[in-house]
Amino acid sequence: MTVKPTTLSTLNRYKQENKKFATITAYDASFARLFAEEGIQAMLIGDSLGMTLQGHDSTLPVTIEHIAYHTRCVRAGAPQAFLIADMPFMSYSTPEQACLNAATLMQAGANMVKIEGGSWLIPTVKMLTERAVPVCIHLGLTPQSVNVFGGYKVQGRDEQVAEQLKQDAIALEKAGAQLAVLECVPVSLAKAITDTAIMPVIGIGAGNVTDGQILVMHDLLGLTPKPPKFSKDFLQEAGTLRKAVRLYVQQVEQIQFPQEQHSFS
Ligand code: KIV
C-alpha cells in the first residue's frame, strides 16, 4: 500500500472537517516508524529532547545541530510524515539568523519550523514564509521562556494576558504562520483562539477544544518521573507500545482525551 505524504493541506482539511488529529514528539527513526504505522501523521522534533534525551532540566542547552541530527533520524523512519522541527533557544533572535538556521532544519528533512513567542516574531514569520519556510507558532507556556515565567506555569489565566495571546495568534497568522501550538492555557482561551484562527491549532494542556493534540512521547509512555497534569500514561492503560500509541490516536480522534482532569480552567 502506498501512503501519501501528509502535508499542511491535510491538516487544514482536518480542521475544516472538524476531524481531531493526534501528533507526538519524535526523536529517532525506530519510534518515528512505529508512530507512523499506528496512525500519527505529524510529528514534532521538539527541543524537549534537551530534557527527555539529554537529561537537562530545561530546553535551553539544545542547539540547531541537535535538532537537525534528530530531524534526519525521524525523517529516515517516517518518510511520509509531516515533520515540524523546533528552532531552539536563541536560534531565531533576528529574522536573518532565523532564516539561516531554518534552512539547516529544512535541509535535514523538516516540512516546517516552530518558534516560541508573540508579536515580536512578526518580522521573523514574514521573512521565513516569504522564503518558503512554513512556520508554526508556539504560544502560552513557551518553555524557552522558563526563566522569565519563573517556572513552568499555566499562562493566560489573567484577562490581560489572555487578550494578548489572542491578539498574538491573530497577528502571527496574518504575518504568515500556518500552524499553532498552544501550551498550558485555560480551555476557554484555547477555544477562542482555535475558533478565530484559520490555521489548525494543536494543544497540549489546552483541553479538547483544539484541532489537534500533541504529547511528549516520554509522557505518553510513562517515562517521565513527575509527569505534567495534562499528560497521560497510555502505556500503562494499553499494555504495549503499539497499543499505547493506537489508543492515544483513537482517544484524540474520538475526543476522549484530554479530559477535564488533564485541562486548566
Ligand atoms: O519541545 C517540545 O516537545 C514542544 C512540545 C511540548 C509542544 O514544544
Automatic annotation (TrEMBL):
Cofactor(s) demanded: Mg(2+)
Keywords for the protein's UniProt record, in alphabetical order: Cytoplasm, Magnesium, Metal-binding, Methyltransferase, Pantothenate biosynthesis, Transferase
GO annotation terms (biological process): methylation; pantothenate biosynthetic process
Entry coiled-coil feature ranges: none
Database matches in InterPro entries: Pantoate_hydroxy_MeTrfase, Pyrv/PenolPyrv_kinase-like_dom, Pyrv_kinase-like_dom_sf
Annotated Gene Ontology cellular component terms: cytoplasm
Binding site for 3-methyl-2-oxobutanoate: 47-48, 86, 114
Reaction equation(s) it catalyzes: (6R)-5,10-methylene-5,6,7,8-tetrahydrofolate + 3-methyl-2-oxobutanoate + H2O = 2-dehydropantoate + (6S)-5,6,7,8-tetrahydrofolate
Subcellular location per the Swiss-Prot or TrEMBL entry: Cytoplasm
Residues annotated to bind Mg(2+): 47, 86, 116
Function: Catalyzes the reversible reaction in which hydroxymethyl group from 5,10-methylenetetrahydrofolate is transferred onto alpha-ketoisovalerate to form ketopantoate.
Family: Belongs to the PanB family.
Protein name listed in UniProt: 3-methyl-2-oxobutanoate hydroxymethyltransferase
Protein's organism: Proteus myxofaciens ATCC 19692
